[in-house]
Amino acid sequence: MSKIVLINVSGHDEPGLTTSLTEVLSRYGVRILDIGQAVIHDTLSLGMLVQIPDQFEDSAALKDVLFHLHEARLQARFTPVSEDEYEAWVAGRGKSLYIITILGRQIEAEHLHRIATVVSANNLNIEDIQRLTRRISLRAGNDPQQACIQLSVRGETADQEAMQRDFMDIAHELGVDIAFQKEGLFRRNRRLVVFDMDSTLIQHEVIDELAAAAGVGDRVAAITEAAMRGEIDFQQSFRQRVALLAGLDAAVLPQLAARLELTEGVERLFKYLKILGYKTAIVSGGFTYFGRQLQQRLGIDHVHANELEIVDGRVTGRVVGEIIDGARKASLLREIAAREAIDLEQVVAVGDGANDLPMLRLAGLGIAFHAKPIVRATAQQSISTIGLDGILYLLGLRDFETSEPDEQATRQA
């Protein structure tokens, strides 16, 4: 009868180990049932679950493996696995698989401890841990800009909402972001990203900047904050704010556009979304003029925002056409996805305000970015500790996949 054995190998990593080890195993017609490897600071940990055919003595095969690894100055451990144990393990692989992404300026042992405690309490098992961000030099003299670790966990939990509330509490208390996604076909195959503009792609609320130029900054800012918190109907508050801009010289618009600052991580994010073939869109309750400026700068495919009416070089205090509120944002997202022949599950939506919630709920992945509390509490995922390029990690990308070779060499020098 064939034997099933778990082979664990550890020690200093050297090139060619897999080649030489599998050469030894191949002499005995060994079948690989499972394999996994990790290297941390040049230290190898390799696991192989193998089946040795009954025509070979398992002791002879393992003796040759042990001798080979001893010559390579590696440690080995052999664990026999019964057929019943193996079948039970195979059955367990049919349970749901989830991805937990931890993001922050740095990740500490306490973060992992608290998260792992919640995972265990919810009958989930951690199967894999990966660092998605680059290695950090301790001699460079600069604090790391961001850190990300991804956990793959498997199992069935009785109350997923309660577990996610626990994650939210940890995130708030310890200053990290924790995303929880079910692994599936679409997680690494998104195709469209739809962004709010103000306080998402740019570090400003443009209407507040225009109001300051018009001398009505305090009055407009108060209405803006109330609207973003969901305390005032968006359309009504928007009309009130725009009306206060009546008479503003339109020459202010290009002057303001030149001063607008992009949010941290925007340029890196768009660079790789473009390389990967993603479609991108702005769907904003802000103004088209500024959306078009960003479109030219970042190569955005679609722009939908409010058209500020200008007559004789002056802002009239009105907008042209339909006001883009929360409901309209969601319908525009749906229209863009249909036009591009993209399933809604493959859409990512990103925003910070209450009027973004309808499109965040509609998208396959909705992300509240540095958002108001009501939005963070309602959105599927949130990023509050790092820049907008943190979205790349939620898509499953690693830093070495989004760095040019010379950039990688510079960072790791």
Descriptive labels:
413 residues; alpha/beta; Alpha-Beta Plaits; Rossmann fold; seven-stranded mixed beta sheet; four-stranded antiparallel beta sheet; 15 strands; 27% strand; disordered C terminus
Give the radius of gyration: 27 Å
* Termini gap: 53 Å
Major sheet: arrangement of strands? 12-11-10-9-13-14-15
Give the tally of β-strands: 15
Counting structural domains, the number is 3
Mean pLDDT: 91
The main sheet comes to:
7 strands, mixed
Q: What quaternary form is this? A: single chain
What is the CATH C level class of the largest domain, in words?
Alpha Beta
- By CATH, the topology of the largest domain is Rossmann fold
What is the topological layout?
Blueprint: E1 3-12, H1 17-26, E2 31-40, E3 43-52, H2 58-71, E4 75-81, H3 83-92, E5 97-104, H4 109-121, E6 124-131, E7 147-155, H5 160-174, E8 177-182, E9 192-195, H6 206-214, H7 217-228, H8 234-243, H9 252-259, H10 266-275, E10 279-287, H11 288-298, E11 302-311, E12 314-320, H12 326-339, E13 347-351, H13 357-362, E14 365-369, H14 373-378, E15 381-383, H15 391-394, H16 405-412
Parallel strand pairs: 9-10, 9-13, 10-11, 13-14, 14-15
Antiparallel strand pairs: 1-3, 1-4, 2-3, 5-7, 5-8, 6-7, 11-12
